[in-house]
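Structure, all two chains, one model.
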Amino acid sequence: MNAKLLSPQLLAGLSSLELIARTVVEGALVGLHRSPFFGFSQEFAEYRAYTEGDDTRFIDWNVYARTGRTFIKRFLGETNSHLMILLDASASMGFSSGSMSKFRYAQMLAASLAWLAARQHDAVGLIAFDENVRLMRPPSSRRGQLPALLHAIDALTPASRTQYGPALEGLRALQSRRGMVAVISDFYCDPQQMLEAVRPLAFQGQDLALFQILDPAELRPSVKQATLFEDMESGASIEVTPDFMQDQYPERIQKHIAALAEAARGMGADHVLIDSSEPLDRPLRQYLMFRGHRA
Amino acid sequence: MSWLAPLFLLGLAGLALPLWLHRLQMKNPKREPLPSTMLLATTERRLLVQKRLRYLLLMAFRLAIIALLAFSFAQPVWRLPGTAVAGARPQLLLIVLDTSLSMQAAGHFEAAQRAAIGLIDDMDGSQRALLVSAGDTIAVIAAGGSNQPSRDANALWAAVRQLHPGEGRLDFSTVTASLDALAGDERGPVTAHLISDFQQSAAPLKFGELVPRANGARTLNLELHAVITTAEPNWRVESIAETDGGIDVAVRGLHTAARRMDVALKINDSERGRQSVQVPAEGSAVAHFAAIRLSSGENRLSATMAVDDALAADNTRYAVLQDVRAEAVPLLSADTQGLAARYLDAAFIAAGRHYQIEPHALQGFDTRTLERNRWIIIDDLGAADTAMVQALRQYLNGGGAVFAALGPRVEGQKTLPLGGETISAVPTRTDEPMLVGALQSAHPVLARTQGWGAVSLARLAVLTPAADDRVLLATENGQPLLVERSIGAGRLLLWTSSLDNQWNDLPLQPVFVSFVAQLADYLAQRSVNDNSYTTGSRYALGNSGAGGGQVIDPAGHEMLGLADTGRALTVRLGQSGFYQVITANRERLLAVNPDARESDLGPLSAQFMQQWQSAARSAAQPVAGATEAHLVQRPIVELWRWLLLALGLAVVAESALGMLHLRTRSGASS
């Protein structure tokens, strides 16, 4: 699917998160199938009976012709794993310099990941957090889980401050066995502190992927005059000069991103920097690559 | 420190503007949300502090500019410490500033103002001061809107600053005589401080008139403050006179060395000549302008000498000279064909005077035209009827002049028309005619006449002169022959005999020519000299021939208000230059010049001043138990110049810092 069709602005025009997630995933997967570099493992693993909702492209028509029954080919990589999505719903995620806020992007990404995981029969759960855990859904692959998750994700609004501790504590309690953890946040925190917080998860054998979503204005600020910036979470305000914002601030944020990536690598986690103006297929591909490696 | 114009301190209210704008700016910067300020924390605070400091400095300079502007205009002055002797201090100070013409000399009045300000500043809280201007008038100067003594030093200072010297003449005796009245009801000690250049020419003849006298038991001291101690050289234009075929301008130097200078003559605003004269040391010289013809009627003459001396106000003199060409003079007569008209006409021609006798019959004469003439002749007053007499009285009251003879028609009348005195005719004496026995040779009418002894009189109307009458000519036995009488604003010259050769032979005598010429000049108020008035003098409006009218001063301003135009009797001629007096029927020019005595810038000698001061102090009656306080003048430092310098520096600094601040806000790299 053309990446343009996966642009956040276009997706934002769709009415429901479910539709968005389906569009994103289908579009990304089409791209993946056509690409020699990405995609599922093509090594046949097994057949399983077709259930409603399965992709009809994977029906083995030869088997159907022979037996009159529909079976889905399952490949290597389609293992029964589970995915926990940690979605940052703090106030800083509500920032927007254009028509879409970071949080809406995060919602679409979380929904897409959930949809993809459910499509691959992975159990998927959700923890939405700010300074506390706001919502916790243990991972499940039951049929009603996905709609419930999408509904829960859609209902969230960003508020309050950010604290990763309670969310990670909650995750440790929920996920006792090895699985995948996708943390979707803007990660305005000390990288070392983040490292310390997630280290227990790494020891637990969890596979971590950090999806850092930043607005273009955060990455490339454009300030024409001295401006009083107000912290969306703490309320603190600092007046800055244009030359600082244009010269020094981009350096600082790149350093911060690099430190975070380094910290993620240090604990064996993946770090994906996402510009909230870019199409969603890339982060999705990143996830799939990450999943593929784990498989 | 004190302020000469404290009202300008209200400008300090403008300080609120930059403060408000600063507050507004600080409170209302552009605000934007940011997900997290964690990456801004460290460095930006430092930059922000720098920026805020820079902006505070900018605001400080702007506040300083406004404050310095207000302070400069408020004119602060600083009195350096002086000394004062403790003692009983007078409660009321009379600060009398000489505002006569001589104080216009360079530096005189400024020194007087400084002395006055020093006295004001030395006042303590219990004292009050009254500011007095002394010129041709002694006037109280209002301070702070009141003519009462004031304790408000700032108001007194402002009043001193607004004073200017005038063009009048000061006589010190006038000042000292006024002091007691100026002190009013003050019971405590009063000290008058007379600040002047103490011209010698302003001293009265009697020394005693210089010592003030106080009524009652209060002490009235007089302290003298001289602004000059040595004579200053000064030249003045002394006179403008018409001579045969020309104009003479006299120039005099006072306390001067010999000097050559140019004298320019203007007639009716047109320069008619320039002469160079050598004025000897402390002497005079005459610049003669030959072949000058005057225009018909009144001519404005001004003579100016080109010299840079101490007093410029007397370097120009003004004069009004009249070229009377055949001025018509009505001769009211019962017999217009009579001899009087012919004799008078012939006399004017012989005298070279440009008068034209116009005979008019007394009966039927339109008396409304009387006012058009400066003077008229009546050859026989006895022929005037009641209406004519009334008209003549009105004409005289309005300032007109009449030369009237008492001829044959007065015979039989018991009372003199226009006078009411009893008259009687002297019987004819043919064998022993009467002769002129007494005359007032100093009177302008008779001053240059000779030959009265040859005049013989056969008859005359005998009258008893009134108390105010002036008998200019009388017979041997004391009968008045020529009487001058003032009626209202006018003058009547009465010849108690006839003007033809019936009762006397005056028209046939040589003296008749000069008599008639001088009589005409006198009644027409024409002088061979400049006929000028002195600044500060008063001009009687009735002299113009009618009550009311308008007077326009040299600056072109009307001097009389609407209500005064019909009833004002006199006007004060306060400026030098030409005044126009306009009445219903005529206009007249007056030339006004400063008093010549003000041109002498030689002060009273130090010895005289000492004597005066001692006499004044001796005359002051001391209050029991009190001692005289000697006030010492302290020098003043005017601070406004320094404030203006500081203002300039603040403006430069604000501009530079403002540019830097603007660059910072616009995003230029710092």
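Confidence is low (pLDDT under 50) at residues 625-631 of chain B.
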